[in-house]
Amino acid sequence: MTDKNMQEVMQKAAVLVEALPYIQRFNRKIIVVKYGGSAMLDEELKQNVIQDVTLLKLVGFKPIIVHGGGKDISKWVEKSGETPEFVNGLRKTDANTMEIAEMVLNRVNKSLVSMVQELGVNAIGISGKDGNLLTVEKKLSEGKDIGYVGEITKVNTKILFDLLEKDFLPIVCPIGLDKNFDTYNINADDAACAIAKAVEAEKLAFLTDTSGVLRDAEDESSLISELTISEARLLIDDGTIKGGMIPKMLSCMDAISDGVGRVHILDGRVAHCLLLEIFTNKGIGTAILGDGADRYYRG
What we know:
This protein is an alpha/beta fold. It is built from nine helices and 14 strands. Helix 3 packs across helix 4 and helix 6 runs parallel beside helix 8 (245-257).
């Protein structure tokens, strides 16, 4: 074996050794992955995400995928002759849009199930309507009625625990029912947070189109690897965290306060971002943790 080949082999071995303590620490722990953004549109990235989640399952994690599909929904709404409308970041959802959203999300759901199955892991695609998994009430946006948009009031965790216990990988479509059994669209971030809190997940990972939290929005090297709730509040107050990152950060902080171990904001455009974040000392995104939690980053 040449020196170059030996070096490559040793680098691979070092990666596996670095991953070992994380595999041991999180064995049999639940991780909720919110899958959306550009990673859903690029076939290679889509394969990478599914490979990552499947590997997590095979090394002992208990993953649950909660997926979006907003860009596909907008495409089909436009094809129907309508213009997608958003109010404060939430899709205005009339009866026709709701029908399109459910059709698109169910199609996405079964596509992801097929990809996981192809890698040798049993997956179950489930809508929030199934078994009353996600019960909702109408969600208003700053007092405005935006149609069939739901706020989760209850998660039927028995369904998810039963699937995990039977060694299935649940893939959740963010559609729910209200008390009158009307169908509602649910923001996928909200659905992932609600599910992670309800099952007391060890980790909640958001795949986004951002690198994570940056001290300087113009400097990718200013990425903050770990951030406590108190530190996050200070960054919101001083304007470092701003715009669309604020509601996402507030959701992360809320999840931590309600029992989720830690929340990760990752760039889904980076190949194998989940593995790089979870199985390496530094990671590649931003991890949000409780004020008294141990830090992992040792670099």
